[in-house]
């Protein structure tokens, strides 16, 4: 596991065994995140909301791919299913927006679990292809005319922005940001408990050696399916949040490239690292913008170049680099 | 992390958050992006990357055209500053980029954002903020809806207008026609068919057979056989390129010789009529609205010469033979006309008001007889299209 990669020396810890620098970093990050509206206008708040939402999706994918070792090239599909679930429930059935998020998660979890049952019996590349098929097919399904009265066909569905409840003095952007932040915080806590508990150990054991895992009594197929379901749940909730934040869903919002982009996010952020989801989200949100600013002729080439450089320079992702610096720093200071 | 640390962090975070939010909601009010004497800032989203990046040339040719206008002194003394950004044909990206353009860059309006999905996604936001979404680059019919979206105006002639043009022409010239229709089963096909029926008016009963196909179908052979069996003497072929070519060839091969109308999206001589067989395509009728840069008949046309000279000087890396560049050039000219009409009152209200008051504006690259006119209740920029007939080598204009 990358969390305890060789070369990282023991650092001072609190009673619970968490390094002090990490406690400090987490406190600073949480405070800074909540204080963001103090420093930023509505547009920046909106942009960071998208980062937070992507981070939730990446967290889900990282459970599956980083910890579980199953490559999914189709998580954009779950993001899309979550987004459409929220949009359809709000728009066609008049659900309150907050109630749609659990629904989006549940629908995706069931979809992920059912898809996982047969598909996860494939290994490696075959699973990657099966999930890729899902990512390619789904945008077409959203366009299907038989369900057009629900999905809005190619023109999609536009939504109103939810206002802050209880007359709180918040703009819709600020409210949605705090809501996303709350969902993300809960998501991170749950994910942390999963990966540190017996379930997480089983998931990692299956990744590292499926035969050994099976021989100690782990039901590998079931664990893989459950992981797939949980992973899809995270991504689906993120999709639901994104439908509310962007106020629009359409088949072109969830192209196959979205799935690839999510995979890029977890690799650049750091596989099997919870904090990697945040770094990855920042990457997939901002690097395309930077690429577009640098070159209108070939933004794809700039994006590719930045991606190549990150892979070469950061073999364990951004989170690997952060850990390396953080563990080296106290020793330097002592000298 | 222990409980105490968490409690402290949470308390601090809440305090900061509530303080910050109050300030945030107090600031950031509506601001009018009036231009004063400086440059006119215009925003735009374009698919420079992604599946529709072939259209990106429209944004580039427009930027080049405004560069030419600026070099010649601008509009009423104002230069034009076009901020054209990539949305990768992704609606969420388009929303993010448009919000940046409006809230951070203070653009006066958004010009020619491209693609139906991206335009649908940004429409509620721009209308809510009262920022003009001017001359959206898409062919859907929904953009001319001033009652619900007074800040949105499309540019492309709609598919319904195209259908209406065929319908009116058939009703006038073939009062006893028996019409068979083949159409693609999606928004494009249905919009065009609706226009056709509207154009036929009282004669809509003349449609004796309708057949559809899905984009995923392999061929339309059986549909053509069915349509022929209906005994129709007129065939309206509402298809995209691949199916257009199949339909033309199959109808000819099974000995069906109706008067044939072909939708404009499938009207390419190179990619549709040539594979179908040029001899089998003689007599086809379609519509157009601007001059085709590959058509020899415009080689000595002054407007086409000007366009080609402009391409050479300002956008040499672009392809002067590409129709999208002609399109972007015409859209640029239309915007300049709107800004000229605005005079020194460069407000969002006035930009929209002037866009609603185009009167018989006819940039010279439009086909003869095509004009742009708008009004506060009619946001369709184009009111008519030009019928053209294929003579075996090129599309020839004819008057009706």
List SSEs of chain B in N-to-C order. HEHEHEHEEHEHEHEHEHHEHHHEE
> Biggest β-sheet of chain B, characterized?
5 strands, parallel
Task: Assess the beta-strand content of chain B as a share of residues.
Answer: 5-15%
Helix content range of chain A: over 70%
* Largest interface, chains and sizes: A-B, 59 and 58 residues
Quaternary form: heterodimer
CATH topology of chain A: ABC transporter involved in vitamin B12 uptake, BtuC
Radius of gyration of chain B: 25 Å
Helix content of chain B: 40-55%
Main sheet summary of chain A: 2 strands, antiparallel
Structural class of chain A: mainly alpha
Helix count from the secondary structure assignment of chain B: 13
> Low-confidence parts of chain B lasting 5 or more residues at pLDDT below 50?
18-35
Total helical segments of chain A: 14
* Total count of strands of chain A: 2
Q: How many strands in all of chain B?
A: 12
Class of secondary structure makeup of chain B: alpha/beta
Task: Please give the order of strands in the largest beta sheet of chain A.
Answer: 1-2
Biggest sheet strand line-up of chain B: 2-1-3-4-5
The number of domains of chain A is: 1
């Amino acid at each position: 596991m990358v969390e305890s990669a060789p070369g990282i020396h023991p650092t001072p810890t609190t009673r619970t065994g968490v390094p002090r620098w990490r406690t400090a970093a987490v406190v600073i990050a949480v405070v800074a995140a909540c204080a963001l509206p103090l420093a930023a206008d509505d547009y920046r708040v909106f942009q960071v909301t998208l980062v937070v939402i992507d981070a939730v999706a990446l967290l889900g994918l990282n459970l599956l791919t980083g910890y579980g070792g199953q490559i999914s090239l189709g998580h954009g599909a779950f993001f899309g299913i979550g987004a459409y679930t929220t949009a359809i429930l709000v728009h066609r059935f008049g659900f309150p927006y907050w109630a749609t998020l659990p629904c989006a998660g549940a629908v995706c979890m069931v979809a992920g679990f059912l898809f996982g049952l047969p598909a996860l019996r494939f290994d490696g590349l075959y699973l990657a292809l099966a999930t890729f098929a899902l990512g390619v097919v789904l945008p077409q399904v959203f366009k299907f005319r038989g369900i057009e009265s629900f999905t809005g066909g190619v023109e999609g569905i536009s939504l109103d922005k939810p206002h802050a409840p209880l007359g709180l003095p918040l703009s819709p952007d600020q409210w949605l940001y705090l809501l996303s932040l709350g969902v993300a915080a809960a998501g991170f806590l749950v994910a942390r408990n999963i990966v540190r508990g017996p379930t997480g150990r089983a998931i990692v054991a299956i990744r590292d050696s499926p035969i050994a895992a099976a021989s100690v009594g782990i039901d590998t197929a079931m664990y893989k399916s459950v992981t797939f379901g949980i992973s899809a749940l995270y991504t689906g909730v993120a999709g639901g949040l994104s439908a509310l934040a962007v106020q629009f869903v359409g088949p072109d919002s969830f192209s196959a490239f979205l799935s690839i982009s999510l995979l890029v996010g977890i690799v650049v952020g750091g596989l099997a690292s919870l904090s990697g989801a945040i770094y990855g989200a920042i990457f997939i949100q901002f690097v395309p913008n930077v690429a577009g600013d640098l070159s209108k002729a070939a933004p794809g080439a700039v994006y590719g170049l930045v991606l190549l450089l990150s892979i070469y320079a950061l073999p364990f992702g951004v989170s690997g680099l952060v850990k390396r610096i953080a563990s080296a720093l106290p020793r330097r200071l002592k000298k | 992390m222990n409980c105490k640390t968490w409690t402290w962090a949470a308390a601090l975070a809440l305090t900061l958050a509530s303080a910050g939010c109050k300030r945030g909601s107090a600031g950031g009010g509506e601001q009018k992006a009036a231009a004063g004497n400086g440059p006119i800032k215009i925003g735009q989203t374009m698919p420079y990357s992604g599946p529709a990046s072939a259209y990106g040339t429209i944004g580039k040719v427009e930027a080049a055209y405004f560069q030419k206008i600026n070099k010649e002194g601008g509009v009423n003394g104002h230069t034009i500053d076009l901020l054209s950004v990539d949305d990768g044909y992704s609606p969420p990206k388009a929303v993010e980029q448009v919000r940046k353009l409006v809230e951070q860059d203070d653009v006066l309006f958004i010009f020619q954002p491209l693609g139906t999905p991206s335009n649908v996604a940004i429409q509620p936001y721009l209308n809510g903020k009262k920022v003009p979404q001017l001359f959206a680059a898409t062919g859907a019919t929904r953009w001319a809806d001033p009652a619900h979206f007074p800040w949105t105006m499309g540019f492309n002639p709609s598919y319904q207008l195209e259908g209406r043009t065929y319908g009116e022409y058939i009703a006038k010239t073939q009062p006893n026609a028996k019409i068979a229709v083949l159409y693609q089963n999606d928004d494009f096909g249905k919009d065009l068919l609706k226009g056709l029926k509207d154009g036929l008016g009282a004669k809509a009963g003349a449609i004796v057979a309708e057949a559809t196909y899905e984009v995923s179908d392999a061929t339309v052979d059986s549909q053509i056989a069915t349509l022929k069996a209906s005994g129709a003497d007129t065939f309206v072929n509402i298809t995209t390129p691949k199916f257009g070519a199949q339909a033309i060839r199959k109808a000819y091969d099974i000995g069906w010789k109706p008067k044939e109308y072909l939708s404009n999206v499938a009207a390419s001589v190179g990619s549709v009529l040539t594979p179908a067989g040029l001899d089998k395509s003689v007599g086809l009728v379609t519509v157009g609205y601007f001059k085709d840069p590959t058509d020899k008949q415009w080689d000595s046309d002054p407007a086409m010469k000007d366009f080609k000279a402009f391409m050479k000087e300002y956008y040499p890396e672009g392809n002067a033979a590409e129709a999208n560049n002609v399109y972007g050039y015409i859209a640029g000219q239309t915007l300049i006309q709107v800004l000229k009409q605005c005079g020194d009152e460069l407000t969002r209200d006035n930009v929209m008001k002037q866009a609603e008051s185009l009167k018989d504006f006819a940039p010279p690259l439009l086909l003869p007889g095509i004009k742009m006119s708008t009004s506060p209740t009619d946001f369709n920029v184009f009111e008519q299209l030009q019928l053209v007939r294929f003579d075996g080598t090129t599309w020839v204009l004819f008057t009706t």
